[in-house]
Amino acid sequence: MSEKKLKEIVVISGKGGTGKTSLSLALLDALSQNKKIVAADCDVDAADMHLVLSPEIEKSEVFISGNFAHIQQEKCSRAKGSSCSVCYDLCRFDSIKKIESSEIPEAKSTSNPIRFSIGENDCEGCMVCVEFCPEKAIIFPERKCGKLFVSKTRFAPLVHAALDIGSENSGKLVTEVRKKAKSLAEETKSDYLIVDGSPGIGCPVIASITGADQVLIVTEPTLSGMSDLKRVAGLVKHFKIPHAVIVNKATVNLDISREIENWCSKNKISYLGEIHYNKNVTLAQLQEKTIIEYEKEEVEKPFTSFIQKIIKDIL
User: Fold this and answer.
1) Which pLDDT tens digits describe the chain residue by residue (315 residues)?
2) CA distance linking residue 246 with residue 19, whole number of Å
3) What is the CATH number of domain 69-140?
4) What is the 3-state secondary structure (H, E, C) of the chain?
5) pTM of the prediction?
6) Topology of 7-65+147-314 in CATH?
7) Which of 25, 105, 112, 148 is in Cβ range 3.0-4.6 Å of 78 for a Cys bridge?
8) Distance between CA atoms of 295 and 206, rounded to whole angstroms?
9) Ramachandran region of residue 146, left (φ > 0), alpha (ψ -120 to 50) or beta?
10) Which of 184, 264, 278 shows the shortest CA–CA distance to 229?
């Protein structure tokens, strides 16, 4: 008897604000009612699934990415009164700043009132200053960029992350979140891994979708929404991943909604349909609920019906 295969579904968008996360949460809610799920929030630059899911953190680990230059002040020749400025002169990124000795806690000597300092978030990591410092006073420690979490929620385990203030996301943290989530899903013999991917077309998006079983692209009926849809659809097509398009807030501009539908048909891209603008989505978020949870108390359940249709069409 063959072992059941985990199916990974990634929800992305060409731009932020299309409703990608709301749809990811709705999909997670609906599928978790009769399937075993693991969720991953790979939109690490603006992670917000936790705002609705209220996760209880069970595990956390520090995320290290790259290195940065740091001047050991008392090894620097300026501590002995030298006027050396090799590091300052060679830095092409203006990452090394002139600063008064009194402003540097580790600068004990005041032989030279002006020192140099490198901000951790300013350093580009080129190592030129490290290599050319005549005193070998500049070290190159690892850079702590954030934290990765494994949490428990009312629907399913959630793997998510938080970047430190000023830290950048190259896609490496996204890869780590997906890797951890996939490992957890396989350990727990889950049916689906639902990933809230990054918006746009950069490295974080590529890290979100590579190797996925299905990609859902959420767009909106605006000129920028359609332009970004074309770009991100081209990216997904490049990686030969099965994908489909959903138009959210379709009633904002019905003409562009029809244009998107026609474009999908012309380019042989699966069009799963449209969701009308619905203020209940915002009300649900304010109550820390998914739209599926919110609609349980409503007579009409348009979003719930649409999610059930998606599940039937793609699964």
Assistant:
1) 456 689 999 999 999 999 999 999 999 999 999 999 999 999 998 899 999 999 999 999 999 988 999 999 989 999 888 999 999 999 999 999 999 888 877 767 667 788 999 988 899 999 999 999 999 999 999 989 999 999 999 999 999 999 988 787 778 999 999 999 999 999 999 999 999 999 999 999 999 999 999 999 999 999 999 999 999 999 999 999 999 999 999 999 999 999 999 999 999 999 999 999 999 999 999 999 999 999 998 888 999 999 999 999 887
2) 10
3) 3.30.70.20
4) CCCCCCEEEEEEECCCCCCHHHHHHHHHHHHHCCCCEEEEECCHHHCCHHHHHCCEEEEEEEEEEEECCEECCCCCHHHHCCCCCHHHHHCCCCCEEEEEHHHCCCCCCCCCCEEEEECCCCCCCCCHHHHHCCCCCEECCEEEEEEEEEEECCCCEEEEEEECCCCCCCCHHHHHHHHHHHHHHHHCCCCEEEEEEEECCCHHHHHHHCCCCEEEEEECCCHHHHHHHHHHHHHHHHCCCCEEEEEECHHHCHHHHHHHHHHHHHCCCEEEEEECCCCHHHHHHHCCCCHHHHHCCCCCCHHHHHHHHHHHHHC
5) 0.88
6) Rossmann fold (3.40.50)
7) 112
8) 34
9) left
10) 264
Residue 74 tokens read as 């008392």
Q: Could you tell me the residue ranges of all domains in the chain? A: 7-65+147-314, 69-140
**What are all long-range contacts of 130-135, with beta carbons under 8 Å and residues at least 24 apart?**
130/69, 132/86, 132/87, 132/90, 133/86, 133/87, 134/77, 134/84, 134/86, 135/75, 135/76, 135/77, 135/84
Sheet holding 7-13, edge to edge: 56-67, 142-152, 157-163, 37-41, 192-199, 7-13, 214-219, 243-248, 270-275
Nearest CA among 12, 54, 27 for reference residue 216 = 12
